[in-house]
């Protein structure tokens, strides 16, 4: 039986969508009965429900601000959390989170998941997030003495490390990539894993002005949101021609294949109209359909993916694939939200990824030198200018990096740009121009 | 064996990184890695991916809660062991995907998933979240585990998804719809490019705990944290503290992030803002930010009726009015924001007009408006 009544939370057991309240109750019940030698308070889940009920009554949270805890030698991966009503809810007096670095694209064997479950039932609350916003497996709630114990078991028994938190490299994340997607322009999983391994020190030991995120999208559809959420967004693209299977185009036109892989089948949109649904919606109008043959002027294509998304059996990404690299995205705190800015329009993505690593390290060096405390890369880019950023990256200005040229004429010319330099003699000037 | 607190450095292992994903790929995925030709959504929540080798992998996608107990994960493992040779994956939006290598294995898997319910009556594994429908809401911790939230997260998501459940299991929208929730402006759930974003905001300036601030906070950091320069050092009753110019406060909560002695959350002051029209994909139109269309709704636990209602109004107006393939934000831009407010019935107030850094870029500087 539940330790205390939770009438408000019980309302969240109703309805069809999976109820997290029912799930926590199920865990609470299992903890009450289990013969496992629990190393954390048996009533942790019950107390968490009690605290949540209190928050539902008060309409405010009941966790204290922060708390510096961690595992020895690491500056991240553990988020300290203390309840602000410890007498009432002793089972969650300290209830720290551990971030566990997920495998690329969240594929698991049940063997591994059961190991995680066994560990977290015994040494934690038995509650997790699958997954946190950045991508980690979140182990939600344990006591201070358990942190080292969990870390020891993770590293020794599960061969598994923690993820990032604080002013360091945050756990990198990627889309499903070539594992199960025909649009993947490079191996997102491999690049994500390789860079995660390469930069373990940056991930575990905070040495940056603030957080730094890598995210790897395999194509411009952007399933892992890198353009909005990553300081460095690597987005797959190609630079040759879209591959066309004319026969399959005909099959879409003839109604044999469902457009957009069947994504609109819940409603009668009428028969597929290639002119209206593909040709006219092409943002650069680089496509034509003569009733027989589809033509694409690939030179004018901006690879938005719409035609490919709409007719995936007829159109395929090109063969000369790689990635666009963009920098500087972040959520609104503090100067306002930013999306990443296109910095390198195209780069081949090939092992051992030296070109990408060189670029990353140039950017980090500049940011470490110039960045203010808690200044994200995108904010520094704004403060010092995109021209400066290009200089740091060793890149020439490219019109593909802008939406439009500047409309103000306030160009910060440098002395070396100007013939004769800036040193002039006012006396010489006065000889020709009276006061 | 195991960790020895008296000798913490003994046999210590660090920097091993995550497990290599290759260990975890199902055999059919490994065999066809990089060889996929195309995919199709057979019905809501069921996909087939076809490889150039001729092999097909069938995926059943089900919604999940971000918050999951180990009991529940073990149940997922049981299902994966029974039907999927011990393999399973999650998506970036808290969905769970079960994959099988034979169409004949689909039906038993789907039937198994469908029948499972929590003791309270809700479904454990609702199938859906594909195509031009609603997929799962990504969200943050809220009251369950965060110290800065303005709203709860899991509870609000549950209420919204209960109401929109049929559209998780259907594909009748003009395009995909992504709803996201962040329980404060820190947006660890980065909701700023979502079709519909539910955002926790504050409306009362920080309370200053003068008694303790000097001991709990680095005053220069608290001062520097304020984007509008509203905080300055002050001595109150002989104690070092700060003073807040309330007129200049924009309620971002950044000071509280740096200083525990300046809490903002409040029963009446904190609540929900709704933003719409963002997207991440480059498809047709470029990615764009979400815009605030509801400045504030109160916290209404346990079922947040006003928030749910506002989202339904927006979503179903869009569904009726938008063209095929048009994302919510592209629809709003095409019809014009004056029409958006008219059609959705949401009130337009001065709160919705930008007055921060780049405000002017959002003002209309033409005579091209609609009556």
Structure, explained:
- The complex is a heterodimer of chains A (435) and B (371).
- With 435 residues, chain A is an alpha+beta fold.
- Chain A has helices at residues 7-10, 20-33, 44-58, 110-123, 146-157, 188-198, 200-204, 226-229, 246-253, 274-279, 306-310, 354-370, 377-384, 386-393, 426-432; strands spanning 78-79, 97-100, 107-109, 127-130, 137-140, 173-174, 214-217, 232-238, 243-244, 287-289, 294-296, 315-316, 321-327, 341-347.
- Chain A has a 5-stranded mixed β-sheet. Chain A has a 4-stranded antiparallel β-sheet with strand order 1-2-5-4, with no helix packed on it. In chain A, strands 9-12 form a two-stranded antiparallel ribbon.
- The termini of chain A are far apart.
- The mean pLDDT of chain A is 96.
- By secondary structure, chain B is of the alpha+beta class.
- The model of chain B has no long low-confidence stretch (mean pLDDT 97).
- Chain B starts with 26 loop residues before the first helix and ends in a 27-residue tail after the last helix.
- In chain B, 25% of the residues lie in helices and 19% in strands.
- The chains are: A alpha+beta (435), B alpha+beta (371).
- The interface between A and B is large, with 144 and 139 residues.
- Strand 3 (107-109) of chain A pairs antiparallel with strand 5 (87-90) of chain B, so a sheet runs across the interface.
Give the secondary structure arrangement, pairings included.
The complex is a heterodimer of chains A (about 425) and B (about 375).
Chain A: H1 7-10, H2 20-33, H3 44-58, E1 78-79, E2 97-100, E3 107-109, H4 110-123, E4 127-130, E5 137-140, H5 146-157, E6 173-174, H6 188-198, H7 200-204, E7 214-217, H8 226-229, E8 232-238, E9 243-244, H9 246-253, H10 274-279, E10 287-289, E11 294-296, H11 306-310, E12 315-316, E13 321-327, E14 341-347, H12 354-370, H13 377-384, H14 386-393, H15 426-432
Parallel strand pairs in A: 6-7, 7-8
Antiparallel strand pairs in A: 1-2, 2-5, 4-5, 8-13, 9-12, 10-11, 13-14
Helix pairs in contact in A: 2-3, 4-5
Chain B: H1 27-31, E1 36-43, E2 46-51, E3 56-63, E4 67-69, H2 70-83, E5 87-90, E6 95-100, H3 106-114, H4 154-163, H5 165-168, E7 179-182, E8 196-201, H6 210-216, H7 219-225, E9 231-236, E10 239-244, H8 254-258, E11 271-276, E12 291-298, H9 305-321, H10 328-335, H11 337-344
Parallel strand pairs in B: 7-8
Antiparallel strand pairs in B: 1-2, 2-3, 3-6, 5-6, 8-11, 9-10, 11-12
Helix pairs in contact in B: 4-9, 10-11
